[in-house]
Amino acid sequence: MKHLFLLTSLLLTALLGGGCASTPTPAKTYTPVDTGHAFLWEVKDGHGRGGTAYVVGSIHMGREGELTLPPAMETAFAKSDALVVEVDVGKVDANSMAKLVMELGRLPEGQRLSQRLDPETVTLLSRAADRMGLQLDGLESLRPWLAGMVLSVTELQRAGYQQGHGVDRAFLGRARDAGKAILELETAEGQVRMLAGTPDKLQDLMLRDQLRRTQEAGAVLEQLVAAWKAGDADGMASLILQGANDATYRPVYERIFFERNAQMATSVDALLAQPRTHFVVVGAGHVVGPQGLVALLQKQGHSVRQLPRTPAAE
Which end of the chain is more exposed for a tag (fewer CB within 10 A), N or C? Predict the structure, then answer.
């Protein structure tokens, strides 16, 4: 594997937050429901502390010009004192992170990926490598979590998707230009260590969940983009979290989404204790569903509403 390619895979770990790497194809073709809303929620502190948070569900990769930001997001960002993201990629030291990925993502000398996987996963992995024109031998030295990332990024890049055109990257650029503070809910190192620290059997299951898709990752991401543009939170949840209803794959979603959602909700609640306005951008998969960030903040007693794409005149 080329050094730079592995680094790119690392920095795209947040794709898991958007569901792009682990979402099987829905049984039926998804048709977006245009709600008239942005993928944006206004959260008002419900405990008299005075804080406000605007929560955006992000698509982490996009094609150039595809993810046009609706006026409501631009307005909410302008009102905000600080930007809050999963990871500020601008702070990541590329060399250190590449070294960490190689340290945590490679198998011990003499071990092979296919020897550590369930036979069903091996079959799916071989088919995926053939479909993408990759040599399976090139993945054999990698642990399952990194092999999955390499496959996902390869598919998405070939479909024309780039991280630089994602929603969170757009707001990171705007925040730096405007001199706004940038806060992190997680770190790149923390995300990598979370994946690397996943038990072997669960890593196998994560990879199998990803590989059992019948559509390529680019086609799945097109559906996610359509849901994002339509403000269709229910549709987004059905696309990203479908596998959570399967008892076999439920532990994957607990690890990648629900445990982290609870941690994010605790962090956002602490921000709401401040009489300031924070603009929070996290992967769309963390925002939606009954265990998503929006639902958790409501359960904490905060006032939450999804905003229309065009803000009302003040």
Answer: C
